[in-house]
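The aim of this short unit is practical: by the end, you should be able to scan a pair of folded records and say something sensible about each. We start with the first protein, listed as its amino acid sequence and then its structure tokens.
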Amino acid sequence: MARQNYIFTSESVSEGHPDKVCDRISDAVLDAFLAEDPLARVAAETFATTNRVVIGGEVGLTDQDKLAEYMGKIDQIARDCIKDIGYEQDKFHWNTCEVTNLLHEQSAHIAQGVTGEQGDEGAGDQGIMFGYATTETEELMPAPIQYSHAILRRLAEVRKNGTEPTLGPDAKSQLSVRYENGKPVGVTSIVLSTQHLDASMTSADVRAVVEPYILEVLPEGWVSADTEWHVNPTGKFVIGGPDGDAGLTGRKIIVDTYGGAAPHGGGAFSGKDPTKVDRSAAYAARYLAKNVVAAGLAERCTIQLSYAIGVAKPLSIYADLHGTSDVDPAAIEAAIAASMDLTPNGIRTTLGLNKPIYQRTAAYGHFGRAPEADGGFSWERTDLAEALKKAV
């Protein structure tokens, strides 16, 4: 029997966090190549520190002779990301930081294991991927991570539109959510650390700025007189971003997914094209778990998929309904296999992943977002629910 009364905590980080700056640049590079060549193979990694950004990794194009031409755009792509995030600090400025591009051609040995006839390409790597969904929020996401993201997205909005000009790009949030009878009912503690551009501001000053937006985002009644607040608990936070701490692509995998409320296969997402099942199969697993829950087949669902490099079909499909359903999990597994082609090409086709839709995923979570008209966040659709119902 699952616990019914407990406190669970998740954290989020803003688009200006050093690691998220790197995720953003890596995904912007990916989008740029996919915009030119929908079949591009990209594995882009970014490192950022004081006044410096380094981009490395591998690129495979349908016409490899065009690689040099596309490379000339990388410097500006990185600067545009940093500018949009909002960094104009003395030691990390979009216009003056040094950008080093070390991208190169994809290894032929890796390519040979993945490339096949169109439709039967193998997985880009071995590994396990997880997807999760729960009825505890409208987005079918765990409440602690969903609202941690929502707080930082709202603060970014008011920072960027000029409503709160004293806020800086770098921030972290953390919520401890109290559950009763298995449902989230309140927040026992709120932790927020945000960069501020006015060096004279105290922690109390920062709380006065951010508190109304936090209360606006959280469900009514979740914050009480007993809720503990920790806003900028270490004091001043003026130096932010890569000037304060070095950043690296792929270091926020729990923030990117379910905030620790569900398993993680260990693979990062950003900078990877959709032949890499670390990314595409994790999206597929979320799509499947969300549709199981949306279909009313369970209140909670975890899906695991596994792959071998160069092999198209998944090695296994596993479903855990966490005791929230009368349906046999084996029936869910069979329904999944019958309802969706889970080869890498099948996933890309079903979810429309060979598009430049990834830069927007780099902050505030890859899941729990609304599907967009151009195909962004397609894995958040619930259009498979009826097929799964009929297949069970």
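Turning to the second protein, read its sequence before its tokens, just as you did above.
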Amino acid sequence: MERSRTPNESSFPHVSINASDGSRAAEVTLLTQLDVGAGDAVATAAGARQAQHADFNDALDEPSARLSAPDLATGDNAALYTFSVGRHGHPFHRHAAPRVFTAISGSGGARLRFIAAGSACDTPEDIRQALRHVEIPADCLFTVRMAANTWHQFEPLRGNGRHPALFAVSCHPDETAGALAPAQQAQVMRGEADLASLTELMPAALQQHTQQTQVWTSVLSFDPLPRQAWACAHLRRHAGQVRQLLVQLHPRNGTRSHRLPDLQTHSSHQLPPDSLLAKQLPRHHHQDHVEIQIAQHWLGGSNPEQLLAALLSAFIQQPAGSVSGLMRLRNLLARPLRLRTSSLGCPVSSLLSDAATQRFAQRFPVLAMSSSTNAAQVLLGADDRHLQFRSSVGVQREGERITFSLSTRVYCRNPFGHLYMAAVDPMHRHFIAPKMLKTAVNCLLEEAATVVPAGGAAIVTM
């Protein structure tokens, strides 16, 4: 690998990447170094806020939100977005128009991969010649500008699955620019475009050629000495994990306008009569149901469908730290057995799947869903070698009370499944499911508390 390290500049370390025709394809500039571990904390907290935005879109492993749409009627074609790239990066893609964004790298640093526009990129040799890497240190504020049609991919620099790659604010100078497909152009003109609809994924045949071990790499850094930079990066990775945990445990620390209610969970073996789960897995070996009831006034005027969408977002964006720790241990033990793994607890782990054919609120993969004026519910689930599980997540409004519920059924497919559930059942019933639901509902209350007007009712923002 050919590596070049930026000199110890008195201003902003930067690198430019040129296309084969000499034009600038991408330029990356470091702006400043943040506090130790700040990158993970900012990405976690800002990502959670992004998920609550009215124009949030969780697609292509690049969750995003449109903060400001273009005003085409007045000739203002610019748009403003946020986007985040998580622990596993996102796929190679490109855009028809130029992009400019400012980002904060996670506490493991970030690797930016570019294939310059103007390169043929039809063969492995073309890819090898055109592929460029830029390494961003941990906890840094930096900017990127890219020309139209520049293939790019972002990922954590140290891919241990513990740090997000980055969180960014992106400016589209002209949303109508570039060789947009007719459907894209029409969507832009209607004011309905988002990051996903303006993205072209790299074809699989081309993607396989990007897995090169020898890549020209530019290492941007504020530290002049490699050994000093290594020691700093090591410290930041560990501090970032601690700060991520603190954000998850106290996601709105210091922003409460009043004391939140103490949440009490109620568990049972019986399902509600209207549960979507009632017709699933008639033969089952495990069943549990947990619910939380709170007064309506804590959540303002949000309807059950909005509350359910917020609840599902909380399951994904702010999972219970203790449950996540148990899942990491479970995944470590499950991989040698070729069992399904997930970073989320099994009642909601299928929210990370792309296999489901239905989407609740246009972004959450579900097996079934139902909604009415006073209730909303989704059915989740997946099959594994040793068991099948189905779960329902619901929100119901009755008078002045809101009930949040999480129910699960499991069918064991073989003796190992029975053995597995015998070990897991008590923990799942008495800790995992109640903890997951309680943490998610508390996130909704925290979010509502941050936007309470003086003397007014709480509001859940979506």
